[in-house]
Specification:
- The protein is an all-alpha fold.
- The protein has helices at residues 2-27, 36-56, 66-91, 94-103, 113-120, 126-150, 158-171, 173-187, 193-219, 230-252, 256-267, 274-282, 286-312.
- α6 (126-150) runs parallel beside α11 (256-267).
Length: 322
């Protein structure tokens, strides 16, 4: 019973903030444009500070675990491929299938991931959290524009698309913050006291703002119907994706319980809010993105709680092949 109470106390604030945002989005009649500055603050200020803080005080050796990166990135790619196939089966449309591929493989690793994993496992889990965040984003930010170019949605040539991908990756605020954090870790440069205080405040604001925005955004997009492929996408995202991570990490090597469980939890997170951003950018599958995020978030309340409970009571070994 005490384990269940502990899990409730761990997860309730996360889903509670999402629920509060959803409630406010339904009750308070403000235009969606009002979220713009809050989203800017989150993406360009608060979350970059959080990722800088996670990295800057870590030994550089912990951020160059390439076997771990290989296993988790391949698992995400497998989830993308399966979800693309599920989307293709229902739509026979490449752009729609690409969006479904993202919905079934892109975890909420920016908004929910860091605060949840660090709360569940501890600060020692920050290196695997950062590595998964960086390389999953690199994978999906590269795959989507390339496939959209092949499908004819991107109106630029292949060379221009590749240059655009490189520019987006290099200038993305999360990746800039990661690079600055790695530099600070390598050079062992502490921030001045005033700057350190600001970064600490902004890091603390990232999680509550992100979860509240997630709830509001879902509330402002009415779910008219549930597309037929959504249950399969949610199953891939919440069950098959973490299972693939578990198998690959166990097969490649012994990464220890902290890194393995951090990767499992990151893979078991619900679909990311960024799916809305990507689908709106291309004007493809916006309704499907809304359905995936809403249904996936609701289903994860059960699946994520179950996974954390099984980890806590020792039913899920960190290594399948000891």
């Amino acid at each position: 019973m005490s384990d269940l109470i502990g899990l409730f106390n761990l997860l309730a604030p996360f889903f509670g903030l999402i629920g509060l945002g959803f409630f406010c989005g339904k009750v308070v009649k403000l235009p969606e444009a009002g979220l713009a500055w809050m989203q800017f603050f989150l993406i360009y200020v608060a979350l970059p500070c959080l990722f800088f803080r996670l990295i800057a005080d870590k030994p550089l050796a912990e951020l160059t675990n390439w076997p771990f990166v290989t296993a988790t990135t391949i698992a995400t790619f497998c989830a993308f491929t399966l979800s693309f196939g599920a989307g293709w089966k229902h739509t026979r449309d490449v752009p729609q299938s690409v969006m479904q591929g993202v919905a079934g493989s892109y975890s909420n690793i920016g908004y929910m991931g860091p605060p949840l994993v660090l709360s569940a496992i501890g600060a020692e889990a920050s290196p695997p959290v950062v590595l998964i965040f960086v390389f999953d984003n690199l994978l999906l930010f590269s795959l989507v524009p390339l496939l959209m170019t092949v499908a004819g949605v991107e109106k630029r040539g292949l060379g221009a698309t590749i240059r655009h991908i490189i520019w987006r990756v290099v200038t993305h605020p999360f990746n800039v913050a990661t690079a600055l954090g790695v530099t600070a870790s390598y050079c062992r440069l502490p921030l001045p006291m005033a700057a350190d205080k600001m970064v600490t405040w902004l890091s603390g604001a990232a999680a509550p703002c992100a979860l509240f925005i997630l709830g509001v955004t879902v509330a402002l997009r009415p779910l008219i119907r549930i597309p037929g492929e959504v249950p399969a996408l949610v199953f891939i995202k919440l069950v098959l994706h973490p299972f693939a991570v578990w198998v690959l990490l166990s097969a490649i090597g012994d990464f220890g319980p902290v890194w393995t469980y951090a990767a499992l939890i990151m893979a078991a997170l619900p679909p990311a809010l960024n799916i809305f951003v990507i689908s709106t950018q291309y004007n493809v599958g916006v309704e499907r993105a809304s359905a995936c995020v809403l249904i996936g978030t609701l289903a994860s309340m059960v699946s994520l709680t179950t996974l954390l409970y099984l980890i806590k009571i020792g039913v899920v070994p960190y290594d399948l092949f000891p």
